[in-house]
Design goal:
The chain is mainly beta and 165 residues long. Helix content is 13%, strand content 38%. The strands form three sheets. A five-stranded antiparallel β-sheet has the order 1-9-6-11-4, with helices on one face. It binds dTDP-4-keto-6-deoxyglucose.
């Protein structure tokens, strides 16, 4: 059975389904190893929209933790680390920011500003977030509890580890 988002007739910005699919496929080709775009199922009606996230609607792991990043100050960038083990799913539910995703060989910049598209960030992906809009609310689903020991915060160390496999 295809993923449920294939059944959407249109996404919230009004693109027809074919545009939605080609947008996702085109960007995905550019993403580093361990990353992929996941289209979130939007349940819209005349009252507005609702997105529910669970395994059956495309979350690729059991959710252990949810956190939100908001009120990011102008000119501030965040992230600048990779995780050794953690998998996360990141979406912006208001505004947007630019994500840099880097697997040690390929570096990709992605504007994350659609409510219906999340990016999965796997282990050993260096990520940075830049150019937050003032209203940006980033929602992050994580597979495990917070653990500072899982972070690699030094880029040279990350590249060494990533290239060793
Ligand atoms: C990531 C990107 C997308 C906690 O106490 N619990 C938590 O679950 C998290 C995520 C953070 N914290 C504490 C640790 C720091 O004292 O909150 C403070 C800010 O965290 P950090 O500087 O790591 O925030 P970002 O925005 O640089 O990175 C965060 C996540 O930490 C990280 O896992 O992938 O967002």
């Amino acid at each position: 059975m295809p993923p449920c988002w294939w059944r959407l007739d249109s996404c919230p910005r009004g693109f027809p389904i074919s545009a939605e699919l080609s947008y996702t496929a085109a960007v995905e080709q550019e993403l580093p190893k361990g990353c992929r775009l996941i289209t979130l199922p939007v349940r819209g009606d005349e009252r507005g929209n609702l997105i529910a996230l669970e395994r059956s609607t495309g979350v690729p792991f059991g959710i252990e933790r949810v956190y939100f990043i908001f009120d990011t100050q102008a000119g501030v960038a965040r992230g600048f680390h990779a995780h050794r083990q953690l998998r996360q799913l990141v979406a912006t539910m208001a505004g947007g920011c630019t994500m840099i995703l880097d697997d040690g060989e390929q570096r990709t910049e992605l504007r994350l500003d659609r409510r219906d598209v999340a990016v999965e960030i796997g282990p050993m992906v260096w990520h940075e977030m830049h150019d937050f809009s003032p209203d940006c609310v980033m929602t992050v689903l994580a597979e495990a509890p917070y653990d500072e020991a899982d972070y690699i915060r030094d880029y040279s160390e990350f590249v060494d580890l990533a290239r060793r496999g």
